[in-house]
Specification:
magnesium ion binding (chains A, B, C, D), xylose isomerase activity (chains A, B, C, D), EC 5.3.1.5 (chains A, B, C, D), 46% helix, alpha/beta, eight-stranded parallel β-barrel, globular, TIM Barrel, homotetramer, Xylose_isomerase (chains A, B, C, D)
Amino acid sequence: MSGYFSDIAPVSYDPQAEGLAFRHYNPDEVILGKPMAENLRFAVAYWHSFCWEGGDPFGGRTFDRPWFPADTMALAEARADAAFDFFRILGVPYFCFHDHDVRPEGATLAESHDRLNRIADVFAQKMAAGGPKLLWGTANLFSNRRYMSGAATNPDPDVFAYSASTVRTVLEVTHRLGGENYVLWGGREGYETLLNTDMKQERLQAGRFLSMVVEHKHKIGFKGTILIEPKPQEPTKHQYDYDVATVYGFLKDFGLEGEVKVNIEQGHAILAGHSFEHELALAGALGILGSIDMNRNDYQSGWDTDQFPNNVPETALAYYEILRAGGFTTGGTNFDAKLRRQSLDAEDLVAAHVGAMDVCARGFKAAAQMLQEDRLEGLRRARYAGWQHPDAQAMLAPGASLSAIADSADARGIDPQPVSGRQEILENLVNRYV
Amino acid sequence: MSGYFSDIAPVSYDPQAEGLAFRHYNPDEVILGKPMAENLRFAVAYWHSFCWEGGDPFGGRTFDRPWFPADTMALAEARADAAFDFFRILGVPYFCFHDHDVRPEGATLAESHDRLNRIADVFAQKMAAGGPKLLWGTANLFSNRRYMSGAATNPDPDVFAYSASTVRTVLEVTHRLGGENYVLWGGREGYETLLNTDMKQERLQAGRFLSMVVEHKHKIGFKGTILIEPKPQEPTKHQYDYDVATVYGFLKDFGLEGEVKVNIEQGHAILAGHSFEHELALAGALGILGSIDMNRNDYQSGWDTDQFPNNVPETALAYYEILRAGGFTTGGTNFDAKLRRQSLDAEDLVAAHVGAMDVCARGFKAAAQMLQEDRLEGLRRARYAGWQHPDAQAMLAPGASLSAIADSADARGIDPQPVSGRQEILENLVNRYV
Amino acid sequence: MSGYFSDIAPVSYDPQAEGLAFRHYNPDEVILGKPMAENLRFAVAYWHSFCWEGGDPFGGRTFDRPWFPADTMALAEARADAAFDFFRILGVPYFCFHDHDVRPEGATLAESHDRLNRIADVFAQKMAAGGPKLLWGTANLFSNRRYMSGAATNPDPDVFAYSASTVRTVLEVTHRLGGENYVLWGGREGYETLLNTDMKQERLQAGRFLSMVVEHKHKIGFKGTILIEPKPQEPTKHQYDYDVATVYGFLKDFGLEGEVKVNIEQGHAILAGHSFEHELALAGALGILGSIDMNRNDYQSGWDTDQFPNNVPETALAYYEILRAGGFTTGGTNFDAKLRRQSLDAEDLVAAHVGAMDVCARGFKAAAQMLQEDRLEGLRRARYAGWQHPDAQAMLAPGASLSAIADSADARGIDPQPVSGRQEILENLVNRYV
Amino acid sequence: MSGYFSDIAPVSYDPQAEGLAFRHYNPDEVILGKPMAENLRFAVAYWHSFCWEGGDPFGGRTFDRPWFPADTMALAEARADAAFDFFRILGVPYFCFHDHDVRPEGATLAESHDRLNRIADVFAQKMAAGGPKLLWGTANLFSNRRYMSGAATNPDPDVFAYSASTVRTVLEVTHRLGGENYVLWGGREGYETLLNTDMKQERLQAGRFLSMVVEHKHKIGFKGTILIEPKPQEPTKHQYDYDVATVYGFLKDFGLEGEVKVNIEQGHAILAGHSFEHELALAGALGILGSIDMNRNDYQSGWDTDQFPNNVPETALAYYEILRAGGFTTGGTNFDAKLRRQSLDAEDLVAAHVGAMDVCARGFKAAAQMLQEDRLEGLRRARYAGWQHPDAQAMLAPGASLSAIADSADARGIDPQPVSGRQEILENLVNRYV
């Protein structure tokens, strides 16, 4: 026990509570056939909650945590103690981490591997003792200066090799800890300037690297899902995994669309010029929706603000697309969100998660009800009903040709008339649920 | 002869001229083995220069052209007269048009076809008499209210059929006029709200439609290139052909990446959050670079401003990527640019094109010299030189595995050190050419 | 009676209704001491609902209204009939219009004046017969080509004079109809390019013009408020009334900060890089908050989308700032919102307003409760409590000097420690109300 | 001598040089009556070039400088040695610094003051020995955690007092070193959330603080200019000194518009949705143009990228507005630009500045020639010529009234016709100079 959260009692479901409590998230309440906890699959992100110090490009650490700067294994263990205390207070079923979050980097590659394995032992013990499960693990291939020009896409082949060694270790640790997914976020897989960049070469490197990660996953018997996390830019000017559509083209190129899915983050969707629900719906349509990083980007700020989600109607639309795509299988709701740097206190960290979990719960419940009542889907089906007609189906079938369709249109002298898209009526309908 | 431009003499190359002249564009000057005219392959866009009336969402027509409103065939011919006069004044080798630009829509589909063919006869005559060639033709499947919910992606199968008939006619007219490409810009192939949209269905419709266009092209013996023009949004909230990477994934999905290329517009690249040179370089790397719509979007305006290009350093970077990809084959430089709505006079239209052609010529000449002198490419090759080593090549070859690479990295105890990316030095180098 | 809405019954408050009804807006419910109708003061915008044809920059009219194109006085009266039928169905207490919305422009300035006065007679009759009141009138000084380079800021003094004549007439009509405000939106008061613009001269023109409008208001005994509506850009590249802060500086420059207030639009706030609540809070702090144009801009679209509001939490924050500033006096909630161009039907127009009024009502009720319960304000006051200390007050008082404050700080050897800003806790608190 | 730049010779003007040289910046060349060095008044920014370590939000230090981490006075002196070596290599006439850049913060306020004074002694000696002059000094009131909620606008009065003490010391040091300006950039003078913010109170604090700084300047006899540096956001969500127009309104409110000018940064202008030349032209029109921070923001990145300028046409437009406003008096061209974090080498730092100085020199020379040849200004004057007429002047004069102008317009039956704004022709004209 770390003692850091000793003033804060475990949070429970109590809609009438005046103080800290879940007012909407009731883990055991059954919705769509399973408990909310299994529907939402909440995870805490180790990095934001236990590693980030409150700095930004114009100022340094604001937070005062007893385990900072966590540059020794002893402090890393103290941090783990605090983290697991925190997981217990929230009652979350999952957590997520990067290697870099949980152990200080060693003087050598070997020492870094060793330290990660030692911390994994600590985690394993805590997990066995009732701690949460691992939603996903990942390797941080972007913070150290060796990665400044990319990891798999680095112009230096040794960085590619170094990355391979690191990913192998973290993937195996993830496997050992029962992780349900493994994530690759290409923080530096992109470029700062086209003038020094060979995109074709770097794309090839990225494709081969990912293929080998998939192969290794099978070799070691890891049953979890490999996930790519799209982001358009920041830290680099342009990141290769720009958005869902871009990742899909990349996967197709290397024949990996059946092996790899996406981990979609609200903030990254916004930065790419999309709504969160767009990215989710597209991934659903393409069959590559894996998991989500739930947070909120400030619409007026042009960088990744990673705020805790706080807008229920938006959250409802997100979960609606997830449910339309069948809900989570190995994926879940990871809070890739950080406190504002002025939120200094332990209470802030707990309250931020509690509020976010409630926002998600409200959104999810609205989404589930919308789906069950089927009004929205009924209207959608009606809009496309014409395509159910055999003549219409035939136009999309293999034998169809432009000239045959054109001949028929000309012969019929068609003059199709538009019908209302009813957007405002649909928006009103959604507002009856949220 | 229309008389509209009767005060304006044909523009010629004269670097010392005080008045209207090309100061940089010398069509006959040989660069990289061919005349500038063949390198740049300039085209005038019929729609902006002869159809747009100067309106915007907050006000109507400002231009006063004798052929407006061009709602009769006689006025359409008057417009054609003016257009070909204009082409002659500029001496451009190409023009581009939509069906909708050149003839008033008929009361029926058949009449629309017929009118297009009649105008095509007029064009053919003028082209034979020394007019420019056709860089590309295209069908406007977005202005008429029947297309308000999409053309190929419309929920109404009859609109799909109507679009097929229209595209067949325009493709065949393009073929008849010797067009070198055929473009599809999906102005309404997207959605206004996800709430009424079935993206999977619409994607299928778009894929089948494009496949049939390709098939029809071969059937009629059209040797030109089929081009898709990416744009992220506007008029719709989200357009399916968002950017080059998105189009690539779509082409891969339908097995069309060897059949279809992209027509990239500077303004659309900007709206998608990319630089123009990024989109060109990516298309080059993916082997789908076809043609360009040259213009300039205001970086501070969030809509498609379609201004004439006026920044030489940016233009140089664009042509540099085009040259790195091998230069134009069937493609060219189409000015998809319109006058500001306060630029009322015939002289404005001529001067805008002359200035733009000079800006392109300056950019192209700088790009050609950069490529010939090979300094930039030399530095790029040096940066990736490590990947020429057989051990490095082996890591990307089919037999490689994550575990083998990791074992080797561990055994070697590598600690790769970063080297400078030299961005500012490269930017300085470029500035010596522009 | 127009007959256009004959299928649609007047909408009433019925929280349990299955069909078209107000579920949250109960005009007679008393909140904060007055009925909701008087708190919210809803108005319908004539232009979007009865003039806009569904066009956008890439396509023309989609709506099919019997009064289109409204280019005769008879059609203008038919439109007025439909508009007042619509007002009655909604039961809104107010409407707003531009001169340009309600009458076809005349062949001469005199005829335009005359036509406006004739339509004003029609309105007066309908208003006397139980129609809504006029929240504000305004002159359209941006659609006609004469205004393409500005109205008050035009380089041509005759356009300035023409604008003066037009504003006089519309201001007097507004006064005659009992309008409670008069709005100036400077749609073309800005520039397309700095290269041809004299900002100092144009600022002087704008300042003098506004000063004369204020003087004329007093001369004719108009008791309503003169409002400027900020917008950063579109249609022009840069508009002089960029945002609230910019307007404030302009008013100060011409000594008008006590005479003129602002009409703040959500969509314009977003386009200027601000949140709606920011603009409202700033105007409140500066004492110039007048009225609002309620709508919603798509956060992913860079132009003015003018959608109906549909996000309750955002609406709640907006009304919270309005209430903190004392609530509306002469101002109100004008729906400067238009249907999506695919929403073709009369029912769409009614439903869009009903949904929007409900969203506003929900937001307002949450805001009122937050204010009454005073938790948020209590926390805010506590944060600044240190400034209540006399020593702190003295630092802000006239006699204070940098050297005295610095001497004291040095002598005391202060080392101030940060305290949590509690942002997430405050956001959670807000979420308990919405 | 630091030895850090020992491999690099002083850079001189040599248009034909192959290696590192000024190709365009010739400090002694007389333009518009004075040497280029006096026109451009270049300054190096201490913070980016000697303090920034290459970190970003996703990774730490990449640069390897012998004086890092500069947390002792000895290392601070080693850094000063390197900085002055660098100034000598470039031959720049000015430099700029924050207190925080040049000395490690002390354990107490008093020690911080003392350390700054000791470093100032070092600077004074180096400046006397031929080093550059001080363009401006400034206090860093944003990096330390005590400022996380603002400096002058902090809810804690002690932070206000601490800031006053700090500014007094830095202002006096600036005065002692002969600084020609003193800058205030309100890095944390803004808010993260409106929910905990009292904008009216914070505005009052900021106004009083600035008033006292101005008073103190006079008290100590500092003849330099007090400058505010606008920025819209980052690090905070909203910064009070948003842009030039906002600062102007603030200055007017506190009667400081005759005392304080603005230091305009290209990157900040872009982030606020303006062009650089807009902010310069507006400040010129308002009489508050002071100095510039020259850099370039990536148009596709939503945060402050602080790149070295590299686009000559844009730079030309900026200097053109500066020259139109009369050129610099106490202000100058400070490179508030940092290397990309992959540009590791000493040579990168030198080359980045050399390239930037050349880009500025090219832009300045083009601007000067445009101004001298007066074509652009001639066209601008012609556009507004109508306002020279006595009747037009009378409309703007004090006695004018809306009703008199309207009566005259009505009587004359005016129907003003638009004339071309000639934007493209003007852009072409500019392109003849750049």
